[in-house]
Amino acid sequence: MLSKKHIFYKQKHLIFVHEWIKKQSGCLSQRFLSSKAEKNAVREQWKPTVGLEIHAQIATKSKLFSNASTDFLSPLNSNVSFFDCATPGTLPVLNRKCVESAVLTALALSCQLNEISLFERKHYFYADLPAGFQITQQRRPIAIDGKIKFHVFGPEVPCPYFKSSKIKQIQLEQDSGKSLHHENMEKSLIDLNRAGVPLMEFVFEPDLSNGEEAAALVKELDLTLQLLGVCSGKMEEGAFRVDANVSVSDRDGELGVRTEIKNIGSVRAVAAAVTYEINRHISILEAGGEIFNETCAWDAIKKKTIPMREKEEKEDYRFMPETNLPPLRIHVREDLPNRDNLVDAVLLRRQLPELPKQIRQRLKDVLKISPALIIALMSNLELLQLFHRIIEENEKREPQLVANFLVNYLLTFIYKHKLTIESCTPHSEFIGEVIDLLQDKLINLLIATKILKELISGPKKLPKEIVQENNWFLISDTKLLEQMCLEVVERNPKIVKVYKKGKTKVAKALIGEIARNTRQCADMAAVAQIIERLLTSN
């Protein structure tokens, strides 16, 4: 069952993708482009630099070092082992599944796996960290030197482009608990359900330039991890958390003083938070002010960053080896047998699924999907899976038509009726049959959207049965349409006169009358052509 918050964030992203596709499908006016550029362009003398740190919860049933459950919906403090609450004498036992997930991820991101990696204790005091330290991998992590390539698009990106970012390291670590602040009691309460939950931390090099690039990287990594099956990607449940480091410097100068934005809660919030912080830095620098090294939070309601704490000096976490865990060894060499039953990177490499880059290439070269639709399909895993399911159910379906219908019509329907793609997925056969009727030219798009309303309560009849009952079949007889159009033109001499004066948009009124007269069942493309021919010939 999806939470209301989950549905809200899903809807927010769907709205963003839908609006972007509408702009890409049409022709962006120079006025729009120039106003956007003038409003949001970063002045040429300033160079923004953005680096991300992302924590992804590994999709396992038990925690990194204990057998306690990771179930998000469990009651407070019900998933806590003796080790999780730092009971003296308890020892960590490494979850093999977590190591396999990290290795699979590292391989997918072209990282260099360390044959031997080490666990360390990172010391700091916080109420929801009972042991006083976090077990992590800082100095010798499980993987280093990777790269992720992603497609950058968004409201401030008139022309989509590809960008890549280097991964400095991927490390395994345990999560801390959660502090719950009770205002009425004036107390802070602690929930240790998350204490020990397994995380992969991705540390990226500071090689991004703006908020849209940061958001695109987050989305690409999220999609990759979901395809691998190693992370749910549910940001609203804390399973995917983003920290952004932002600095601004002169074009030819050294990196400026950075600020950190912690725990950004959605993909679009990443873009907004980074963009805001870049503009804030520039405004301060241009006024002759000074940037302070501080940690901020993103206020999604006020659309601004809020200072949390200043960092006057570098924090000393007193890293030391975790003596209760031996070095983590991985089998990485193909020329040697895996005699010790180590996590086998050679075997896992063969199990890699189709990754985003390969999917894009197949959609483009094999299925002949247009670039804008590919971007839209790849922006949501559920939408991509629905697309594949529909074309696999009937090999005669045209992929471009399916993609266009899902992106431009199904997404509109979902947004309008506050649904989710997940709620439509079980009805893929129904949606596919609607597309079949379109492809066979038995209905038009207006009727197709009417049939989709059956998804709200759950379809009880087949699409063709609905069309038959309502007599919604497409009117495509040329002679009949010609007669209808001629009658409408003759009944509206004033509109014809205005059209002759050059105001061609009035033809839409005549087309609309045909649509009403035929209960929207006419072939509107043919109607538009006939109306235009009649108006220009009279």
**Which structural category fits the helices and strands?**
alpha+beta
Biggest β-sheet: strands ordered side by side in the sheet = 2-6-7-10-1-11-12-13-14
Q: How far apart are the termini?
A: 61 Å
The 3D shape can be described as elongated
Mean pLDDT over the full residue set: 90
* Count of strand segments: 17
> Quaternary arrangement of the chains shown?
single chain
Strand content: 15-25%
State the helicity in percent bands.
40-55%
State Rg: 28 Å
Main β sheet profile:
9 strands, mixed
Name the poorly predicted regions: 25-40
Helix tally? Answer: 19
Account of the protein in words:
- The strands form four sheets. A nine-stranded mixed beta sheet has the order 2-6-7-10-1-11-12-13-14. Strands 3-16-17 form a three-stranded mixed beta sheet. It has a three-stranded antiparallel beta sheet with strand order 5-4-15, with no helix packed on it.
- The longest helix is centred in the first third of the chain and has 22 residues, at 4-25.
- The chain is of the alpha+beta class and 538 residues long.
- The termini are far apart.
- It contains 19 helices and 17 strands.
Topology:
Blueprint: H1 4-25, H2 30-40, E1 46-57, H3 96-108, E2 112-113, E3 116-117, E4 120-123, E5 133-136, E6 143-154, E7 157-174, E8 178-182, E9 187-191, E10 198-204, H4 211-228, E11 240-250, E12 259-264, H5 267-286, E13 294-299, E14 304-310, E15 320-321, E16 328-331, E17 343-344, H6 345-350, H7 356-365, H8 371-378, H9 381-393, H10 399-416, H11 421-424, H12 428-439, H13 445-452, H14 454-457, H15 463-470, H16 478-491, H17 493-500, H18 507-517, H19 524-537
Parallel strand pairs: 12-13, 16-17
Antiparallel strand pairs: 1-10, 1-11, 2-6, 3-16, 4-5, 4-15, 6-7, 7-10, 8-9, 11-12, 13-14
Helix pairs in contact: 1-10, 4-5, 7-8, 8-10, 9-10, 9-12, 12-13, 16-18, 16-19, 18-19
